[in-house]
From TrEMBL:
Region annotated Disordered, chain positions: 83-105
Signal peptide: none
Subunit: P1 and P2 exist as dimers at the large ribosomal subunit.
Similarity comment: family membership: Belongs to the eukaryotic ribosomal protein P1/P2 family.
GO cellular component: cytosolic large ribosomal subunit
GO molecular-function terms, A-Z: protein kinase activator activity; ribonucleoprotein complex binding; structural constituent of ribosome
Record-linked Pfam families: Ribosomal_60s
InterPro entries attached to this UniProt entry: P1/P2_N_sf, Ribosomal_P1/P2
Protein name in UniProt: 60S acidic ribosomal protein P1, putative
GO biological process, alphabetically ordered: cytoplasmic translation; translational elongation
Alphabetically ordered keywords of this record: Ribonucleoprotein, Ribosomal protein
Natural source organism: Bodo saltans (Flagellated protozoan)
Length: 105
């Protein structure tokens, strides 16, 4: 585990307590048996003075995926004509992607 990752995890663990000073970050890293330099912990602590992790975590959104396009509604009673129209449309042929290499690849 890198020092940066250890400090990030320590910051996440310490976010609720509000104690994101260098000594606390070093204590968490030591408890996890990860060696973190005091300079790295101090840099993270200085950064965390301006950043409130709990506010960032409250605003995280994972989203439910992309919305379906308007034409892709759930099939209803008139689904048969839609299938017939889709079957009537010819599929485009795939282009040869060998870029004129004569089938070498």
């Amino acid at each position: 585990m890198t020092q940066q990752l250890a400090c990030t995890y320590a910051a996440l663990l310490l976010a609720d307590s509000g104690k994101t000073d260098a000594a606390s970050i070093l204590a968490v890293a030591k408890a996890a048996k990860v060696e973190v330099s005091s300079g790295m912990a101090s840099a993270f602590a200085a950064l965390l003075k301006d950043v409130k992790i709990d506010e960032i975590l409250k605003n995280v959104s994972f989203g439910g995926g992309a919305a379906a396009p308007a034409g892709a509604a759930a099939p209803a009673a008139g689904a048969a004509p839609a299938k017939a129209a889709a079957a009537a449309a010819p599929e485009p042929e795939e282009e040869d992607d060998d870029f004129g290499m004569g089938g070498l690849f």
